[in-house]
Design goal:
homotrimer, 0% strand, globular
Chain lengths: 210, 210, 210
């Protein structure tokens, strides 16, 4: 494995861990769950987007389900959230940074995998976005929340921009670690600006004050 | 492309547009969403049934996801709903007619695709019904409603009848535009009668007044 | 078909029937549904786990969708629940026993199918558990409950133990009816102990009284 590929794998696992941790903590706050529920929802948050991606591509069984490293890291994140939920609630900022890192990498790898299997550019951008936000959406449905990605904050928009950047660079013939990191940075910066300044996507006209 | 196939494609796109418009409007009413949420839910309503159908058949990536025309028409319907939500609320009847058209065509094409890939008759009827009602069900789950298809009105029943008509005509050796339109008409008429006379499927005995 | 395979098929159909009956009854209690909703939710409870399993394995169309016997038995269970909902509510214990039987068999067959298609041991255990609890989880999402499997009672844990027992015996080279029944018994006994003594999986520390 080359240094670049190894770096990407490590970052992908870091993103998986962050998604599992953050997903499980969100689940603990949103519903009255036992250990099975907390760990399951952490794993679904971390692995769900990649599973939806692979189902849509027909590349089954899904990578994140077959590869034990993803399963182990996701289960670890969920277990840590279960045992340390109270203490971790103070650490909002570092967890949000890690979560944005996961979002960025998932959006970029999702779009890249889509292009590699022959999807068109628009489809690859959508697939990257689904990869990034799909796991959190599944979790929100299971704990009976309207998925935050549909209602507030900038979450899908940075993922869409990161996936678009990855698609454009690939179409320009730029591949490799630099293209990946550049595209992921687009998503990461927009996401962190959204968190910092509490930005929101537009709401339907005339409904803002309803 | 023959005239019949072109006509079917046009009608399928009209149905997709109607589902996206109606789905996004329903989503605007049911939850507090931003533009990402409204367009996403419009697209899920329009494309979700076809995606579930293709996942069940293993014909991946799903047609409605690979074909940019479906994506563009669905996104257009969602965007129009977002910007014109207030004005469109007056147009209930034309939107319901278009929606019934979409329901009819999706039920018939779902069953026809199922038969073409070797499913049995009962399975093809179920698949047609899932194609027709699957997208709206996904939307309702995401905006946290009990899917209306499960609880009130005649929505699954006309789809089931249309899919059954398509299956029977195919088994009798009648194919082509006439069989498609005849079967779709069965669904369309039952659906519009259901809307007009506010018909409901039976409820569990002894629970009507609970 | 050998006597062992026939016995397994019969038991699998009994489990499917029990899941459909129990799933439809739960749905009747949880939401205001019509006959379409009750039968659909019974069928989803009974067949959903196997469908998720086959989607993840890429073995499509799913067996429980292609094989009319599963469809017929599941629809029968849903219809009986619809017409006899009031009377069946008294029969909690026999229905719970049948449901535990279904849980046990689905966990074991899910894990066994996973191993047969080349999954690793951990993945096979997870797949068996998903097969056993997936249908009920889909139903709970559709009737807008936080899935009970995530929040209370011992439901996923016995399925996990049964799937693990099936995986260990298969890895030890023990196959056939005896291994299947031994593993299913592990799940069944733990499940029934959980029901009898109202056992729960641990909750997050410091949240027990919240």
């Amino acid at each position: 494995m080359s240094g670049g590929a190894l770096l990407l794998l490590v970052l992908d696992l870091v993103g998986t861990f962050a998604f599992a941790l953050n997903g499980a903590l969100t689940a603990v706050r949103a519903a009255d769950l036992d250990i099975v529920g907390v760990v399951t929802l952490g794993m679904i948050t971390a692995l769900g987007g990649g599973i939806i991606r692979d189902v849509l591509l027909g590349s089954l069984p899904p990578t994140t389900f077959s590869d034990w490293r993803y399963l182990a890291v996701a289960a670890g994140g969920g277990l840590i959230a279960f045992f340390l939920a109270r203490r971790l609630e103070a650490l909002t900022t570092p967890i949000e940074v890690l979560d944005a890192l996961g979002l960025s990498l998932f959006a970029v790898t999702g779009a890249t995998v889509g292009l590699a299997t022959g999807l068109g550019a628009v489809q690859a951008v959508i697939l990257g976005t689904i990869t990034a936000v799909g796991g959190g959406t599944l979790r929100d449905v299971l704990v009976r929340r309207v998925p935050t990605v549909l209602s507030s904050g900038l979450y899908a928009v940075p993922a869409l921009l990161g996936a678009a950047a990855a698609t454009v660079t690939a179409r320009l013939g730029v591949y490799g670690v630099v293209a990946t990191f550049g595209s992921a940075t687009v998503c990461f910066v927009v996401r962190m600006l959204g968190v910092r300044y509490e930005l929101n996507a537009p709401r339907p006209p005339g409904r803002r004050n309803s």
